[in-house]
Inverse folding.
């Protein structure tokens, strides 16, 4: 089966479609972090996106791409994280139903957020099997359309709109660095850069402790994530065939960071920039800090992907 | 002795003087906080100011107001907090010496920051007596000019530039609320509003556990702070005769907040706005949350005064 990759024009269409709904997030810089790294970094702040994460872009594009007949069926997904909240809010904005399968162990604050956006929650066990099985039942019962968090051209195209906005603020970059979990953000980014600014190198940043993308990229074979155990809880998922395909073709390198490096980078952004990012967002700066020579005197775009952290369980 | 109050024109001059050096900080809004409070709030984000606090405005204005002969003598102050860092950086920018007296118990990160800006630090005990005595010695030895953190027309005028910027973004406000410690920020704000937009009411927000300004305001007599014990560590100081005088004339009311209310407001801003503010900054939102009827359907400007927190000792 030939996989269909998104193209720049899909991202451009996504942008028109979602523009009325999303926040145009700021691009921030920090003199003190530039001094520390020896590079010049432009941070695209998706922690200020609605629902606190870039996921709202992809979910909104997917939902507003549906025909009226499709939309009337409602949408469904399984997620304990940002995609659940993103899909629920996007569905609310279109005025359709959303069905979210969440592990009953999810933090209360996340359950309340998803419920607050009007979603119907079905609880499951926290295993992937239980999630998928429960979702299957929900979809059969409701006839809702499953919107996958990243293995979906509409979702990837939506995520790509963030780097399109970044390029409008600063386009003479040497590198764009984004974290990789399932691959939605990095693939959206790579899709834009590949066609629009091929001279910019796209780098994926991944936790050492969840390095399926790194191993897949280096060996040329799709490896699943095996017992991932990282503070970067948005990056636990494995690549899909679609996102792996795009990464092989359009991403220049994958670099991993240790847990200590991730926490150090997260703390640096909190302390120096006074903004709240989640650990997954810190992985990109972590690889810059641990590869200073490589990025020295370079101009870097870094995607800060989200700001949803549990303040009762901080790593410092 | 007649106290000389700053006037709007002093703030306007301050603005011209400091503009090349300060950050033009953003004014942010939060739909979810507006929904919770029932009011419409515009947050002036001085947590994004240089050194992470509005104090940089006043210190910069004071230092760049000096004649060359005065400046050549250097500047001195005693502070364990934001004024120390602000004065040190402003002195560095003017290319003059700064002498900072700090309690030896100050957090290491603060000592390093002040040292990083090129200040010469003299350590003292953490009592007010030890601070003042040590400062006295330093001033005698160095002939440096003492720049008081708030009992100074130049400093107050500098702090007032923040609300001047706020009014340029949104000027049809019903209230402006700023926290009060020594009174530099609230007096700068009141100076601007009193002449420029007298229809806006200026409210000072103070911790219940450090309510010297509240008691002084209500009784008409200057009361010192007695054993203040609040998480809002930027608001421990007492008013001076100058700031008390301005407050009596130009501030409409002072409202206090409990420690729980301050922590709740701080957490709300962290979680909903994804920005880092220090506890002192949260007192203004705290009084809105605990006086919802009074502020319902009103348009409020809130000064978020700083973002310097010790991440190892958070109240949640």
């Amino acid at each position: 089966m030939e996989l269909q990759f998104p193209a720049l024009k899909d991202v451009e269409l996504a942008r028109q479609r979602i523009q009325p709904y999303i926040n145009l997030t700021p691009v921030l810089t920090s003199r003190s972090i530039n001094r520390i790294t020896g590079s010049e970094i432009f941070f695209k702040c998706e922690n200020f996106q609605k629902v606190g994460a870039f996921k709202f872009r992809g979910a909104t594009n997917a939902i507003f791409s549906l025909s009226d007949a499709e939309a009337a069926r409602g949408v469904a997904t399984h997620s304990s994280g940002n995609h659940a909240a993103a899909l629920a809010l996007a569905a609310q904005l279109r005025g359709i139903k959303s069905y979210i399968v969440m592990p009953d162990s999810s933090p209360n604050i996340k359950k309340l957020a998803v419920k607050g956006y009007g979603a119907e929650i079905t609880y499951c066990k926290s295993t992937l099997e239980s999630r998928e099985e429960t979702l299957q039942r929900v979809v059969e019962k409701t006839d809702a359309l499953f919107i996958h968090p990243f293995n979906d051209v509409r979702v990837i195209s939506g995520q790509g709109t963030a780097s399109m906005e970044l390029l409008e603020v600063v386009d003479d970059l040497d590198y764009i660095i984004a974290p990789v979990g399932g691959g939605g953000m990095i693939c959206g980014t790579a899709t834009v850069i590949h066609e629009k600014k091929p001279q910019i190198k796209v780098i994926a940043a991944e936790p050492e402790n969840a390095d399926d993308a790194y191993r897949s990229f280096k060996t040329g074979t799709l490896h699943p994530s095996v017992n991932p155990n990282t503070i970067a809880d948005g990056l636990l998922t494995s690549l899909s065939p679609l996102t792996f395909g795009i990464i092989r073709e359009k991403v220049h390198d994958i670099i991993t960071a240790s847990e200590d490096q991730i926490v150090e980078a997260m703390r640096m952004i909190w302390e120096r920039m006074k903004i709240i990012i989640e650990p997954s967002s810190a992985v990109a700066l972590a690889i810059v800090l641990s590869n200073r020579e490589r990025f020295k005197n370079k101009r870097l775009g870094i995607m800060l992907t989200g700001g949803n952290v549990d303040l009762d369980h901080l790593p410092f």
